[in-house]
# Entry
Amino acid sequence: MKLGTPLSIVILAASLLATACGPSVALQAPPGFAVLPKQTEYLYRAASANGVVLAVRVADNKPTGNLDFWADVLDRQLQQVAYKPDGKPEDVKSASGVPGRRMKYTRENQGRTFRYWITVFVTESRVFFVEAGGDQDRFKGKALETIQKASDSATFG
# Structure
């Protein structure tokens, strides 16, 4: 499963342009994850040895929308490409106090089930997407808790 695929579709569909300068993110890498250097599509990306990935992307808040707008755009786009909701969305806050919404999905690919979480945080000028994904067999138990803590530890600049 290529973690970037769903969000890439959303970004293209919404005619977003990734900002070239300015935005930053700080995120506490979960235990057992290594931060991947020199990422071009991501502000941050880390992976575990068993293939679970945690990543952060950013886009301009254009068209200007609130959290409800962006969460709805993401949900619709993900469901159009065969992602199935896994529970109800959760309202969360980043470590820097930015309100967000975490949505969880599953998807079947070549006979295997993958989990994908996306948490969207919206500021006046930017939209931050914290993504986590991996094989369902590896995306469970303690991994779920550590991924959620890492996602919630985000601070945006």
The radius of gyration is 14 Å.
